[in-house]
Input
Amino acid sequence: MKFRSTFLSAVALVGLAAVSAAAQQLVAASAGASGAQGAGRVIAPNRQGRPDPGKVNSPNGGRPEIRTQADMLRVSGYTAPGAKAYAAMAVDASAGMWPVTLHYRCRNVPGGSSINAPLPEPVEVFDGVYSIGDDANNVWALDTPDGIILIDALSNEADAKRIIVANMRKLKLDPARIRMILITHNHGDHYGGAAYLKSISGAKLAMSREDWEGKITFGPPMPVKAADDFYLTDGQKVEFGGRTLTVVLTPGHTPGTVSLVFPVTEKGVPHVASLFGGQGSPKTVAALRQFRVSLDHFADVTDAMQADVVLSNHTVGDDGLTKVAQLLKRKPGQPNPYVVGREGVVRYSALWSDCLSADIDQAVWNAAHGITPPPANR
Ligand SMILES: [Zn+2]
Output
């Protein structure tokens, strides 16, 4: 509580749209304090979210949540009247289904997706579909008779070894059987471990041409595209080992972000999973508008394929830490928390679109009032 009251008074002093360096340091100090249980990772201040001290021991690892209109008003930081109206609609759309995601989407404050929570346990979420990432970035492994498909690859070789390879071994998945790594976009926390994983498995790497050839904003150098690597394109069907993943080009978070829709089963019962590849809001109004158009494009595909599952490559993108904790405690007959039905997929799309609209409205309002916007999320 001491942290929160200090932080809030700091925010009150400088205004919600311009958090002071002192407040940022407080955040860093707090995240560092909880980092003792987070495998000692060092997270750069601009990648850190703000922990909610009341939730440090909750399954979500201390991430703030938005469940009500009052929560939204208290923590989102929007000051523009239009942005507040959109944010209120986002609360209605979420209907309490994604409290962490809603906080991450709908906010006018800086900070990233990491918070140094304890590492989540790797777990089989659907038949042969495994969650094997860390507390901030998720990685999905799709097993097939012909080998394993990975979606994303964490930040670097060390994380690939310590988290992806270690989690695969725990699940009796042989990392040498990785045949394909589908990379959602060219931020280092998604492709940084790919070169190492290719080196131990011979896996093909795949990414959009726009992002593979585009400018990298952070992370190690992009792996040089080998002869067997390939580009991901809009509408492409990636078929491997009996699985088919539909690729949707969804620029906005980066110019070449790709998203995926693919059938899964749970004990043989069919579902359709949707995974939007880019998370944090970009900074410019043009990119935010492009992002919103991409969400609509993605919705066209998830509607056409009747998706009923929401997955993410960030744990703040699908309330993943909470869902993994629920899965680990799940009793026979209880529902799979990742199966949200058509209503859930539609609500998820709506809440995100509303939050982007809030960001757009706030950015326009900021420009009209001469306010410097906070740094973009990742
Ligand atoms: Zn990113």
